[in-house]
Amino acid sequence: VQLQASGGGLVQTGGSLRLSCAASGTIYSSYVMGWFRQAPGKEREIVATVTWRSNKKYYSDSVKGRFTISRDAAKNTVYLQMNSLKPEDTAVYYCAVDVDHDGAYTIPQNYDYWGQGTQVTVSS
Q1: Is 45 within 8 Å of 106 (Cβ atoms)?
Q2: DSSP characters for 37-84?
Q3: What share of residues in the chain are helix, strand, coil (percent, to 5)?
Q4: pLDDT by position in tens, the chain (length 124)
Q5: Are 87 and 107 in contact (CB under 8 A)?
Q6: What is the CA radius of gyration of the chain?
Q7: What's the burial of 48, exposed, middle or buried (CB within 10 Å: 0-12/13-18/19+)?
Q8: Which of 5, 95, 97, 110 is the most exposed place for a label (fewest CB within 10 A)?
Q9: Among candidates 29, 37, 26, which has minimal Cα distance to 80?
């Protein structure tokens, strides 16, 4: 599986961005897709996840109510709609896929394939 993330950019506080993650290769219904982010000097952290089969979603507390994860099975693409952006949302955002479910979906080490990352910068 190869992942291609896009959609990052510079936006003012309160603005919106939509990230996309296009997957090449077969996405099986058992897969879990996740968005993570990493700010300078900080560890990579979970943002949101979605299960491919049941479309069950998870959000971190820091983005709940502002971000929405979705997936388009026909396009093998996962989206992250980010609204009401804050300066603390500034980070490199990564999409990833967990294919073997060997641990919690919130742990980046449990994901098997990663996209290249896209920079999101929110100015105050």
Answers
A1: no
A2: EE-TTS--EEEEEEETTT--EEE-TTTTTTEEEEEEGGGTEEEEEE-S
A3: 5, 50, 45
A4: 999 999 999 999 999 999 999 999 888 888 999 999 999 999 999 999 999 999 999 999 999 999 999 999 999 999 999 999 999 999 999 999 999 877 789 999 999 999 999 999 999 9
A5: no
A6: 13
A7: buried
A8: 110
A9: 37
